[in-house]
């Protein structure tokens, strides 16, 4: 675990809720008002029918219509501001989580993740987003639960059987739909992993395209990426199918439940035990209840998918540092020395670079150059020998103090959106010849030539 901080997927999710408790409480309260007002609409319409339309009472109708307008305005604004507050929390937490991931990667001592850049990008984007979405679903679940209980209470006041059907049927429908949640969590985790691997492989192939072309391995590389991409596609399709099964199951169960409520209400109306207005209210209320039932039923699947992403983020943040926490400070004169170094493909290497000298190292094996960079960045100790700056081993120096004197920069390739031309000239101010000259200057013209359209 990095920096002695232990994080789990559950801890990340609890932390999001805890540090936004005030905003989320206000958001959930407004969402409850929204849902309750939605439920009151058919009830108020039924009341208007019984007390204004049936007895032809114009004054009561005007009052009822004004009340309906006020109710619609209240539900509209309560949803607008409640959802906005929850969405703001999601965006803030997503950004904070993404910055935490970036900070872990860009820490002066680095992070030993063992991941390709594309995989890291997938965690910082897809997983960070999915992990925070559960905050909004909690709000919808709380408000939906409140309105379901309130609706059941209203139905009990009209007819005990109607209330019992809702109070018993909703938990049964929600419980049965949760059977699919673990399946969705596994599917989503597999999908995120497959997408990360495909993205990482794509970046890796772009980084090594020239060596691949040199040895004629383009087809083999394309075949490998195609296999990885199709695996990600199959995982994504499997996740969508899981959500589809969840939606179909929830709709079917809620449909059966609400049909039973409507049937009981119809029979009571035919027996004269319900007025016309009460029957309209019950039917309208049952139509509305389909939405909160589905929202409550989906919380398990949404929590499972968010938890799967939070676990990936937590595992990433727990990766150890690359560079040990040294305390030494290099002193002038700054002399870099490799004495009898042996590490991986490097064997018996001696090198000395003194101030004012320009030293070039010719390496015929990319693995050897990578190992040398690891040693100079203090990300690894040699198996034999010493790598020293001003007579002190690099791994014993404070990272910030060492970087003031010795800086290592690796060749890095990143994938980006759009074309080469739009990345070089995003505002379209340069002519084609100028763009071609820039591509030639950075030795990217041969890559452009490989594309049929240039």
Automatic annotation (TrEMBL):
Gene Ontology CC terms: plasma membrane
Localization annotation: Cell membrane
Superkingdom as given in the UniProt entry: Bacteria
TM region positions: 58-79, 133-154, 160-180
PROSITE patterns reported for this sequence: ABC_TM1F
Sorted UniProt keywords: ATP-binding, Membrane, Nucleotide-binding, Transmembrane, Transmembrane helix
Domain ABC transmembrane type-1: 26-305
Protein name per UniProt: ABC transporter ATP-binding protein
